[in-house]
Amino acid sequence: MSGRVSLDLLHSFLAVHRAGTLTRAAEVLGLSQPTVTAQLRTLEAQLGQALFVRGARGVTPTPAADDLARRLDGPLDALAGVAGSLGNTADHTLHLGGPAELMTARVMPALATTFAAGLSVRVRLGLADDLLADLTEGRLDMVVSAIRPRRAGVYAEPLYDEEFTLVGVPGADKGQPLLSYAEDMPIIRRWWRHVLGSPPPRRAALVVPDLRALRAAALAGIGVTVLPRYLIAEDLRAGTLIELHPTDDPPINTLYLATRVAVLHAPHVAATRTALLAAARSW
Predict the structure, then answer these.
(1) H or E segment and range at residue 236
(2) Are 9 and 76 in contact (CB under 8 A)?
(3) Dihedral-angle region of residue 124 (phi above 0 means left; psi in -120 to 50 means alpha; beta otherwise)
(4) Is residue 120 within a helix (H) or strand (E), and if so which, with residue range?
(5) Minimal CA–CA distance to 229: which of 276, 266, 187, 263?
(6) Strands 206-207 and 154-168, how do they pair?
(7) How far is the C-alpha of 107 from the C-alpha of 85, rounded, in Å?
(8) Half-sphere exposure (CA, 13 Å, Cβ side) for 59?
(9) Comparing C-alpha atoms, which of 59, 63, 55 is closest to residue 18?
(10) From its phi and psi, is residue 48 left (phi > 0), alpha (psi between -120 and 50) or beta?
(11) Cβ(258)–Cβ(147) under 8 Å?
């Protein structure tokens, strides 16, 4: 390799590696395809090796390209984040995504100190896959995710282990109607197999895709359901709901805090991340 490699060349290379085609990378970069092609050829000449094998449907990275992308992923995004923040320090709006129930019960109260510091927040509620796609594409800065993110340009860390328990009103038992989040009863099925070693004995009597609605239905005595403990902690303390099968080994699900590397160290993002990680220790 001769001379110093331009950051512009490395930025274009990483865009091609992520996009898989020169055309798509050019669109992301806001450049013409011939310009991106020329940049790529210049970088390959400076490195003295091919980085991609051109094909009819795009480009395939060589092992050398994969190694270079691993080394650039993160540091280059962070540098882009710093560059993008220069001259734009007045915008302290955080774009945050997460599941509706946890955002309502735990995340919003945990942001009280950051709001007091003048932070503005725009929240998007939804499923993890959709929110992580928005995060990767720059529409969100941070996501509370029920699945572990494995995406380029995303920094993820464990936030909270939600613990699930079977609950109903006093006097209820496991034989009562089941209240489920989805038709295939993923939460109930997981609890039944983990704790009792068998599948649920019947289909759900009620299906509603909102854990808060399931809590309300359980409190009304409609049936029994499996819910995360954080959502029903007050009900359990008050005795309005009871654990129907207490266990020392409940099923848990780890929630992750995912942040775009490009904005990881921006003050308003860093403050929110610190607040959430601290608050989650007491959830």
Answers:
(1) helix 229-238
(2) no
(3) beta
(4) strand 120-125
(5) 187
(6) unpaired
(7) 26
(8) 26
(9) 59
(10) left
(11) no
Q: Evaluate whether 267 touches 80 at the Cβ level (below 8 Å).
A: no
User: Would you say the pTM of this structure is higher than 0.70?
Assistant: no
Task: Return the number of other C-beta atoms located less than 10 Å from residue 175's C-beta.
Answer: 10
Q: How far is CA 102 from the centre of its chain?
A: 13
Query: β-strands 142-145, 93-98: how paired?
Result: parallel
Helices (H), 48-85: 63-72, 75-85
How far apart CA 192 and CA 196 sit, in angstroms, is 5
* Rounded-to-integer distance, Cα 276 and Cα 111, Å: 7
Residue 167: what residue type? V
pLDDT band, very low/low/confident/very high, at 258 (cuts 50, 70, 90)? very high
- 265 Cβ contact list (under 8 Å, min separation 6): 78, 81, 82
pLDDT in tens, 40-64: 999 999 999 999 998 877 899 999 9
Q: Is the pLDDT of residue 82 over 60?
A: no
**β-strand partners of 93:** 120
pLDDT per residue over 203-252, tens digit each? 999 999 999 999 999 999 999 999 999 999 999 999 999 999 999 999 99
- Rounded to whole angstroms, the Cα distance separating 258 from 189 reads 27
Bridge partners, residue 154, by sequence: 260
